[in-house]
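Input.
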Amino acid sequence: MPQDPKHDNSEILSPVTDGLVIKLIESVADIAESEWSRLGFQPKQTNPFIDPRFLSALESSGSITADKGWKPLHLTVYEQEQLVAFMPLYLKGHSFGEFVFDWAWANAYQRHGLEYYPKALTASPLSPITGPRLLHRKLELTKLLAIVKAVCEWLEQNHISSWHINFPDSDGRRLFEQTDLLPRRDIQFHWVNQDYAAFDDFLSNLKAKKRKNITRERRQVESRGWTFEWLSGAEATEQDWQLFYEMYKKTFADKGNWSQLTPEFFPMLAKSMGEQVLLLFAKKDGQRLAGAYFIRSATHLYGRYWGALVDEEFLHFETCYYQGIEYAIAHGLEVFEPGAQGEHKLARGFDPVLTYSYHYVLDPAFREAIGKALRYEVKEIDQLLTYYQQHSAYKATSTDS
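Output.
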């Protein structure tokens, strides 16, 4: 069972530095709605997984709580009594729901009689999505570095083993590369829209074998009588969300996984984010038997959860990948991110991209050992990336038809 990461936090991090006052808050709801715009937040434009409505729905629905191993202690930064920066921060009592795997680190700590948990995490919970990790109002680099330093000092003062910043965007990477945090890389598979007008245009860019395999998979699903129904968050009813939750929970249980999201989360987020939340049902003989949950921005489609009441070959690929590609093409979206891992996505038109994380490890000996391991790991990641790029589903030349 997840541990409840107990911690008695003071309201203000010490030291207050560079004219900044840094406070920890226990809920996103503690920040007034009007303050978010000062940080450059724009609904539908800002990455939805740092959207206060998304983070708040996780907390308000009871999906992200201390007793589930996620204690919110979000970082807020004030200058002259005005909010100038926000960073999601959680004390974790486990390593579930992060998609950057540090179980070996935790086990090594335990073998040496040290406590790895609680640890600190800056990320969007349960979401392997690259995005902003420090929203701020155009703060200069010296102040951003002062914020990072203050968090590291807070870890030391409270004897917290480590701090993990998962999936930062390019701005975050530029910041963290200028600190002594340990960098780490991994690979995901994303689909990129090349101004396709239709799914067939996408297929025409693929190698012949890959194109035929996708066509065969889609035809098999269609021949069995499957049809698909898209609903926006504004259109889906409470009954729709209840059905999808049953699918989601069953699929997690069948795989022996822990379904952390509560039934309240899905309709709660749909109500607050409306058209950005998407629910797709797969139907056969008039019955909804499978479904997938997506979130979109102005430019991206993000596939997040899938569930099914039946087990049928290729249904997952159609529901979670091909329908998403069709949606992205129809709505002019630039990128479709279907989730973490999944080498099988390569053959279906998703190309490899690097993702990043950064890690502060308190214990000097472990910091050195982990740093050495990560330097070795990056060579493996580079080799794997090259391999994936060489095995892309896309035609290398116009003659490969």
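The chain has two domains: 21-187+354-389, 194-333.
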